[in-house]
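Practice problem: predict the structure.
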Amino acid sequence: MRFLLLNQFYPPDIAPTGQVLHDVAVNLVGKGHTVTVICSNHSYDARSVYPARETIAGVEVRRVGGLGWGRRGALLRVVDFLAFYVLAAWRAAFLDARPDVVVALTTPPFIGLLARLLARLWRCGRVQWVMDVYPDVLFAHGLVSERGFVATVLRALTRAEASGASICLALGPFMARRISPYTTHSARVEWVPLWGEQPAEAAIDAIKSVRAERGWTDNELVLMYSGNMGLGHRFGEFLNAARQLGPAGPRWAFVGAGKRRSEVEAFALAHPEARIQLLSYVPRERLRASLAAADVHLASLDARWEGMMVPSKLQGLFAVGRPVIFVGGRDNEIAAWIEESGGGWVVAEGDVPGLLEAIAEARDPRQRGVRGAAALAYARQHFDPQRNAERVASLFAAAGRPDAP
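Answer:
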């Protein structure tokens, strides 16, 4: 079969949505299918421009130009999205052959509407792979009011995206429940967790090298937040705990970027006693060693975003056998997977005393070992890259066979 995949980002770009899409695309190519990706030639961080055409591991990548204004403000981001919609549609119009299945992710928002148009034109199957639930995310961000004309229009667009899709694929059970009201009775709502790297032990020498580079001694406890510091995450509890524990507390490493990194930077400057360290993203080839170099990892999700987004960081953290302290609500995939696995601690929003108790337990090497082993076992069972990518690829293929179970 022939597959057309639509997403704004694709490797070699570092955006996680592109990385997991590539894993599935390679799986499809390995089964003898033909796969074409239409994406942007601008990188996620707007610092790089990629070739218009290339073949990566058998996947035909067709990149369209753009304005690259996505990080310069909300209005310019919308303009950037509109440019991508138009250019992607133009590129799709000149494909060499009609696809059997069109797959759209949710970057940029509502790109599924283009997939719907193309699927109707070509009379082929369609999959909506939901990474973020729009417009709910916009409501949670406070960018759009939940009431009023604009909200009504955006909800109608989401229903139009889901309407007629063979499969709506979510990242977990809570997200699947969230998107169900937008779907029609004809759409299958499925969920498959995302994945991290192949579970394996990072080399001891590589871990020691990372700790030495960052000035971490062997006997100090390092708590690490690694990844996007976005609006849907919480940092207040971590920062307050760091301030209360002070110089005698653990090292707090925040690795990555995002809209809320500046808050962490400002807090670190105002409270030098908190032992907060800020670091940049690391290359993918060094990510495993970076994650394994920490003793305990930090994750968070504001309850307002529950069911709308599923941060993919947990999979990578569990895959290196490190326990996770999560701050947030309990009606979300991250909290459920941590509690089910025993691979960490779940702390309620605003519960700084509870966070301090979890950190006190995490100081015990035996506790870290037991919970880290549980995390690794859970990753091997539920977040295996090959198995989950295979499952997603099978669902894509099923969309091209309407009679498939």
